[in-house]
Task: structure prediction
Amino acid sequence: MTRTPLAIVITASLAGLLFGFDTAVIAGVTHALRVEYLLSPAGLGATNLVATIVGMSFIDRIGRKALLLIGAVGTAIALAGVAVIMGTGTHRELLLPLLIGFIASFALSQGAVIWVYLSEVFPTAVRARGQSLGSATHWIMNAVVSAVFPAVAAYSTSAPFAFFALMMALQFVVVLIAFPETKGAALERMAERMGQR
Result:
């Protein structure tokens, strides 16, 4: 299978949005958490900060791909749990731990890895343009998903979380099969690695 940096960068950029993290922040889910559970922005920020530091401390030890896989599993489980709680209205006491687990799983994987990964998959000659494409894809889709999320959430509170959980399961498969590990790879040799299985 031939893997192009272009396809990988677009997929990686979309993944940050299909985690639902940016959407959750923009659409006010974190606001609801603060109101319902009296959780301060500092508490949510501290969770995000600590998990990001953990992710950055492991990024060169276990690699980018492993962190993305770990994060996909953690966020999928957390989001699926939230979807069940929202759909059934039961076990609401688990909502806070699941959402904090989601924030932590995102921060230690996608949040810590994506911008490093985008800078490593392109050869030096086209890196700036590749990173620009990745950033543009991320922010354009951010606007689209953020615009659609409130309408879907108004129809069903569980549907967005079920969708995001499904996307994380799909991301696990895509990362496992198609994403090359960039840890320790010479940037000039990434083009060769993209053509390998």
